[in-house]
């Protein structure tokens, strides 16, 4: 379970027991300048800015930012089964790259990113109110708290710039103005570089410490050619090395350890969204992807939704010997599980008979087929199609929200990023360093090491997909490798302009004359 921090500042007064003097005598006086002195105390102040990441409408919201990164890629499809998941055609539009400037998920993605920015600006204002306007008199804890809030604010800006391109820089001081993607990139870079040495040079689970800032910069430099037109592969490699050489993190022996319920001490996770089924909700993968019949098998207190799954072509990227293939469930669903300590399906001890399901006039056994034959079936005959996502551990008997944290960044990605940066600087070929990095990840999955001839850029893209499936990286990866506009099941080739989403209509209408719409919309 996760730590929930609560700050309680109490003042108590007692009345003197005297017949003639009834004035109160104050025994305790707690002042803000006495309290906000330590990093832990400032962390409680900053917590609200992190809260934007969790919640049902947070980073992995199925109708928001996560949808932009994953529904639009080659590793997710959301078939309409009967009327379920049609949602006015939005999931199909996201998959086929036919969204518009008033599409629900496009609207929600913008609201999420700038909602986070607004919360950061509120925190920054509060820190100034508490610590005073003269920063030269501030405690080290106040300076570190301000730097942490600014790094988090830069991260939210990165999400906006990545998805919408030419956006507003909201530092709490500027009038609304549209900046070029490069200008936003440069501002984010400055914010990170100016503040990373002011925060802890250590691992603090769920917080923006120095190695997390290194990771954000490494990601920016890896995508710099897409963002600004100028490649910065050497800078990407350098910041990966700062993480690797700093010995902050390790690669777990077991791939699935990073997705367990209790993982606050997990050394592979660089920056997670900290979830709790009661106090910090939002992880709903166990409901989103599972067939309706799974409610009774796992004794969930609410229905499963039978929604997102993966495409057969993506599922087939995994060899049968790849341990990571167990993050996808296919095959028959049985009516009970006897080993509740290993909830991930492929590790559970199934017993009983195959679950049966009634729909309309049909009666059938629930056997999940990895092949998706249609993206829309009004009869729901496709009810059992598509491999289901079971990467995250969940407990039986839960309701809407699971306890497992979501790793936005983890160490396996650093190794793959360094390898890519090396290969990009070497004409697309893998040298010994690139091979060593990728093979640490690849062999952990139970697979033989790559040779230099085997590790092409296309193979690296496939390996990134197998390792990081549904973790919010696929859209960026496909854009960087040049495959985002290509065709896959239920998607025709799409225009290059769709590498960016449109500025939502409501944003442009709310600031007339400020925003020029992105090309192609």
Mean pLDDT score, rounded?
90
Low-confidence stretches: 1-22, 339-348
Rounded radius of gyration (Å): 25 Å
The major sheet is characterized as: 2 strands, antiparallel
Number of helices: 18
What share of residues are in beta strands? 5-15%
**Strand order, largest beta sheet:** 1-2
Structural class: mainly alpha
- Helix proportion of residues, in percent? 25-40%
Distance between the termini: 45 Å
Q: Shape from CA axes?
A: globular
Number of strands: 14
Could you please describe the fold and organization of this structure?
The protein is mainly alpha-helical and 521 residues long. It has a domain at 285-400. The chain is 37% helix and 9% strand. It is built from 18 helices and 14 strands. It has helices at 32-35, 39-50, 65-70, 90-96, 104-131, 140-164, 181-195, 210-222, 224-228, 233-245, 285-288, 294-297, 312-315, 411-424, 432-444, 457-468, 474-481, 505-510; strands at residues 13-15, 24-26, 80-81, 269-273, 328-329, 331-332, 334-337, 350-354, 356-359, 362-365, 367-368, 376-377, 388-389, 406-410. The strands form seven sheets. A two-stranded antiparallel ribbon has the order 1-2. A two-stranded parallel ribbon has the order 3-12. Strands 4-14 form a two-stranded antiparallel sheet. α7 (181-195) runs antiparallel to α8 (210-222), α8 (210-222) packs parallel to α14 (411-424) and α14 (411-424) runs antiparallel to α16 (457-468). It is globular and about 75 Å long. The two termini are 45 Å apart.
Which properties best describe this structure?
single chain, 521 residues, two-stranded antiparallel ribbon, two-stranded parallel sheet, mainly alpha
